Amino acid sequence: MEGQNVFTTLAKLVQGRVFSNVITSLILIFVLWMLNRIARKVIEKRVRDLRSQFSWRKSITYTFVLIGFLVVGRVWFEGIQSLATFLGLLSAGIAIALKEVFADLAGWIFILTRKPFDVGNRIQIGEHSGDVIDIRPFQFTMLEIGNWVQADQSTGRMIHIPNGFVFTQPLSNYDKGFKFIWNEIPVLITFESDWRKAKQILHEIADSQALSITPQVKQELKETSRKFLITYNILTTTVYTSVLDSGVLLTIRYLSEIRSRRCTTEDMWESILEEFAKHSDVELAYPTYRKV
After folding, report:
1. How far apart (Å, rounded) are the C-alpha atoms in residues 184 and 169?
2. Rounded distance, CA 135 to CA 123, Å?
3. Cα 287 to Cα 31: distance, rounded to the nearest angstrom
């Protein structure tokens, strides 16, 4: 009977302690939630730029979540006096039991510190391309481009990518470094065409419509070359000549703004069709068969 009474007393003490910890945790979570809402309201009133508002709200939320995690953890693990010991045990448990979740958190820290991309950047990771619209502790979200839509335009779908993919998948950033891309337009003409005249026409069209090499572009390339080994000797538009089975291939190569590739391609093709129509000795090639 005496042993049973001791067990009952210990059970009551444990239940009372658990109940007290639950109440304390709920109060702390509520207080931190209210402080987070107040801080977000202050940011919304004082910061007018939407992009800055978004970044501040995310940073504040992550800060309060981290504080809540540590404070509530201390309530339940008050027997462990060393915070370093607590964090070490917790990290070991997560690494063993939640490998993928831990990888996503590590990827999130990597994204925030090393900044391979930011919200608003256009990237390609693995087979997926899009504009980054959100970054969270376990995943980031992209507004998809490409796929069944041509020329890097939006499909309207949102893709959620685990943060751990930054360690395992190739990552391309359209906006990082040099903020322009090279685009090429292949124009195939017949062997009977005057290819020299056609090449001159394409040069004139490209020079008139492609991105002009302003001092700003040159300065940006100079600043980028200080961080990365990027060297371009030729920044002006170029038309390359090659020969295929069905005709002479003239390829226009020019600098384009990241999100203007489809528009510039359309403008150039319309000009090419209009100019070629004026010359009877220049014709576009297409698959043909000849009998001899």
Report:
1. 27
2. 13
3. 72
Query: How many other CB atoms sit within 10 Å of the CB of residue 229?
Result: 6
Please write the tens of the pLDDT for every residue from 87-133.
666 666 656 666 777 788 889 999 999 889 999 899 999 999 999 99
pLDDT tens profile 4-26? 454 455 445 445 566 677 777 78
Report pTM. Answer: 0.61
CB 108 within 8 A of CB 125: no
Start-to-end CA distance of the chain, whole Å, equals 113
Of the options 3.90.800.10, 3.30.70.100, 3.40.50.300, 3.40.50.970, the CATH number for the domain spanning 180-276: 3.30.70.100
CATH number 2.30.30.60 is the correct assignment for the domain at 117-173? yes
d(CA 88, CA 284): 69
Which H or E run includes 241? strand 238-244
Contact 129/144 with Cβ under 8 angstroms?
yes
Place of tokens 């007018």: 48
